[in-house]
Design brief:
By secondary structure, the chain is mainly alpha-helical. About 45% of the residues lie in helices and about 5% in strands. The relative contact order is 0.19. Keywords: Signal.
Length: about 110
Amino acid sequence: MASKVGFLGFAVLIVVVLAATSNDGVSADGCEGDLRGLTSRCAQYVLKIGPKIRPSRGCCDVVRKVDIPCVCRQVTPEIEKLVSIKKVLYVAQFCGKDVPHGTKCGSKYS
């Protein structure tokens, strides 16, 4: 159930990135990684509504291969209405993905 609810929020976050992404997973903006996998495996962990929960191993496997600061640069105010940037940063950090202090993600900073 949580994955169905969470999918919507993260899908919105990734929609902007995917719009500029070629079929091989590398965007025109230089964001690299499995962005489709990021959507399918991590959606439930970043939706604004609901509690903060630890991401799965599958989610972390994908997160480690994605350029999080690049994805963060794609976040619009509309996306922030559905996705918790604090949760996005939490998931990245929990999964061992370095997000440099001061990185801007939407309107928030790490």
